[in-house]
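Exercise (ungraded).
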Amino acid sequence: MIPDFEANCSDWRIRISLREILEVHLTLSAINQKMRPNHVVWVTKGENGKRLWIIRDRSILSWVTADGESTDPTFALPIPELFIEQLMEMIAGGDGIDLFCNEVEGTIVARSDNGSYLSIDHPQNVEFKRQDLPYLGNPDREHNGPAIATVGMLDIVQFAKFLFKFPSGVDWPPNDVMPFVAMALDKDTLAWTMDWRRQDSYRFTGSVPANTVGAITATFYPYQMAAVLLTKDRDGDAHIFIDGENAEYAYFVGDDWGIRILLDAEYLARWNHKVVRELKNVGVDVDNWKSQQIPSFMTFTLNQSDLCYVSLHELDDLSVTVRLTAILSDDVPESLGVYGEINKLNDALVGARVSLRDGEVRLVVEFPAEGITNMTAHMSTFTKALAQCKDVHTFLPLFAG
Amino acid sequence: MSHSSSPFGDGFEPFDPSQSIEEIEKVVLDLEPKIRDLNRHMIDVLGACPENETGNWAYLARTELGEFVIGFEQVSIKSGMKLSNRFLDVYRILDDIDVAAPSSSQYQPDLGPSIVGDAASLRFVPSTHVRVVRK
């Protein structure tokens, strides 16, 4: 039986141009080298009437804007990634495609100018979330010194090509994290460094001219972003925006496209998930964290009530240390008596130390990140030391004077 | 639309205040004021419930186990959609308040959107188009 694609069609219809579907397809291909059957691209409308195509992966979101029509729906329509690829094939030879839904079959239908049709099942169990909004302001964070750079597209593309340049002969173990880029905006320059020393190679540093306002340095996983930048026209300028040193994201914005990239530290990407896993293996669950960024420290609870911290610290020689911390007492003033008691405690502790910092008496166990496979031993040291120090909050004030 | 033949809804036992003095005290002094407060706040935010003459959204009910609970009016699909839009309005108002009261004095709320441009005009999460299969 020949299907009637026009039957039961939705009361809305979206007219898509060849140019916009090409832009969306290129962006999608750059972000996801392999199309994933259960992932979607969103199309929706901004409050200024512009049509927005939104593609998101774990640490990157990219958008393409196009002139919408007044009849464009305001909801977010999920389109399977696979369908975008098919639409590219279908649109060849025409100016555009009409997109609508069949509300009996539950399908998304595309009709080309030459009268051919293609339909796909409407995705289920997908939801447009806050993380899918292209711009995410974060008024709750500390904002000190936003930075903006305007960079010619030719220079942006050069930057992207360098990010993509893997040193020849580099070999890294499976599941290792590839280098993050350190990007600096300052003094009318966009500069960057890719550090390949962990892969037994060298650091590569470059710069291109830019108009900058403010100064900032940020690190992030750059490869998908570079691939998207390489798909863009070389005309005109792009803007880079980072909303202060505590910002979660960097924005790269062109005339009809943009990229939001999550700012993260490479050493955290390498070690955080391993630390969480090893702690779980010894029966310790870290508390959830709010941000999409990888946290530099996490909290967990021992003995039902002792709030403890696990943190990661990168040293100058690129080695990384894991630190387990418990705050034994706070509001403790510096005094000879207090330091004397801390010294006595440290004499009795094995593999742990107590120190006074910022008015807090802290118990710390530290070890190289490579040692997380011995987490049982480290946690045992930590819990024993915690038990030895359990009365510290009662006797320390005696020595405060 | 009436919520059920019982004023307390399906699955609820009608409340009989004659059961004990203690219960009457509890209902009159504690639960009914709470329900009145709840209805007042809900009507302030959502408007009167279109499904009954009083405009109240909440009512006192009791489960089969005898536990006091708060029941809410059943509403028609049409009223439910209006309610959904009303919640969206409330969300937008609250979100604007959040944006208008940043914790950091250095935050410039218009700076990011001015650079991001058209895409920043999508300020609120749009509803997701869902699969419709009509029989």
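Further reading is listed at the end of the chapter. For now, observe: The domain at 147-254 of chain A is CATH 3.10.150.10 (DNA Polymerase III; Chain A, domain 2). Residues 354 and 363 of chain A are 4 Å apart (CA to CA).
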